[in-house]
């Protein structure tokens, strides 16, 4: 009798662990970011409460990362600059100037005081698009 109760208890614990693991996997923001990247959607992963944490976002299957900076002279906790870059050159070269403007607007919605600065090689690609008039 004791063995049966112990077995049932262990079985319930195992089921609870499996349910917890599946729930944690489904709600994982990194998985949502990767899923949006595969679909080509815009998705922004950001902890607005923690300025030290970088921003990750995807748009049109390109993955970008942004570093937030705040003015050290200003007493407020406002983000003043966001430096954005991408590791994969091939992904963002399929984008137009309008796509980069869309991403800047999305970042400005969350951080209205921030200036978005694009790091190389994204910056060079945007300049090339501006010269071509795209």
Automatic annotation (TrEMBL):
Keywords: Membrane, Transmembrane, Transmembrane helix. The chain crosses the membrane at residues 6-27. This is Sigma-w pathway protein ysdB. It comes from Bacillus selenitireducens (strain ATCC 700615 / DSM 15326 / MLS10).
